[in-house]
Amino acid sequence: MIEVLVLYYSHHGSVEAMAQQIARGVDEVPGCAARLRTVPKVSTVCEAVADDIPDRGAPYVSLDDLTECHALALGSPTRFGNMAAPMKYFLDGTSGLWVNGDLADKPAAVFTSTAAMHGGQEATLLSMMLPLLHHGMLIIGLPFTEPDLISTRSGGTPYGASHVSGGDDTLPLTEEEKRLCRALGNRLAGIAARMALPATDESIR
């Protein structure tokens, strides 16, 4: 079984909804399964410790989730054109995996949600790519062969899936955004599955 880790941080629920759609796209690929995980908030109180199990949503991620997965989809809301602090904090703690090259040559994709159309979606997606490139991961995006990427009036970029949540963060995913999320999960899982085939397999020629 090819496992794709869908790792996200979500504050108001939009990125979590995207993660679920991406996981759905992963599960549509034969022989592939999504593993949904999240990261805890970063506390401003040094002594504060989060419970091991979150109140709702996916379980918290562990480094083992990263080493065991065949591919990674990474999602975060934007914070001034950058990924949110909880996701950055988690990634900053993966230097041991970097030393061992545990993530090298694994495919990866990114996704984000912003309040406004021009709220920094593409900058946030690019910011999430940087640590993945340092890990040696192979970044994939959304090709313009996806019709929704051209026609969408909401989220959607060639760098990864995106969503416009509105100023009060209440706008649901549009049908175009849902399809692009599923397409990203589908493409990521399909590439991971093909990469896992033996090099002599006729089906990859």
Notes on the protein architecture:
With 205 residues, the protein is of the alpha/beta class. It has a single domain, classed as Flavodoxin domain (Rossmann fold, 3-Layer(aba) Sandwich). Helices cover 37% and strands 17% of the residues. The protein is built from 7 helices and 6 strands; from the N terminus they run βαβαβααβαβαβα. Strands 1, 2, 3, 4, 5 and 6 form a 6-stranded parallel β-sheet that branches. β1, α1 and β2 form a beta-alpha-beta unit. The radius of gyration is 16 Å and the shape is globular. The protein starts with a strand and ends in a 9-residue tail after the last helix.
CATH topology value: Rossmann fold
Query: Shape, please?
Result: globular
CATH superfamily: Flavodoxin domain
Q: How are helices and strands ordered from N to C?
A: EHEHEHHEHEHEH
Distance between the amino and carboxyl termini: 22 Å
Percent of sequence in beta strands: 15-25%
Quaternary state of this entry equals single chain
Question: Residue ranges: pLDDT <50 for 5 or more in a row?
Answer: none
The percent of residues in helical segments reads 25-40%
Summed over residues and divided by their number, the pLDDT gives a mean of 92
Rg over alpha carbons: 16 Å
- Separate helix tally: 7
CATH architecture: 3-Layer(aba) Sandwich
Number of strands: 6
Biggest sheet: strands, sense, closure?
Answer: 6 strands, parallel
Q: Given this structure, which CATH class is correct? A: Alpha Beta
| Class from helix and strand fractions | alpha/beta
Counting structural domains, the number is 1
